[in-house]
Amino acid sequence: MLDDVVHDRAAFWRVLADEQGRGMTVVANAPDVEVDVTRQALEALIDALVGNVFDHTPRGTDFSMATGETAKGPWLEVSDRGPGF
Fold it and tell me: How many domains does the chain have?
């Protein structure tokens, strides 16, 4: 479920990323991982994190979404290459 939701949200955000000249990378390494939240909650979380990239970095700033799993459980990372503060 985790990777499926990440891919779905990436497809949604790709349109705006392309319009703003932002490179977007998706590295989904948790294909069979289920998470203990609803799909809607996970979508909202991803949208909030990616929305922050668009709200707080200049146009043209690349970003990535990645998933994985460790012994402690699944993880999700949204990172950007913005200038910071």
Answer: 1
Give the single-character DSSP code of 56.
Answer: H
Task: Give the CATH number, domain containing residue 23.
Answer: 3.30.565.10
Per-residue pLDDT tens for 31-49? 888 899 999 999 999 999 9
- The answer to whether the CB of 82 falls within 8 A of the CB of 58 is yes
Q: Is the CB of residue 43 less than 8 Å from the CB of residue 6?
A: no
Cα 14 from chain centroid? 11
Q: How many other C-beta atoms lie within 10 A of the C-beta of residue 13?
A: 21
Q: Is the pTM of this model over 0.70?
A: yes
Backbone phi, psi, residue 74, to 5°: -75, 155
Considering only CA atoms, give the Rg of the chain.
Answer: 13
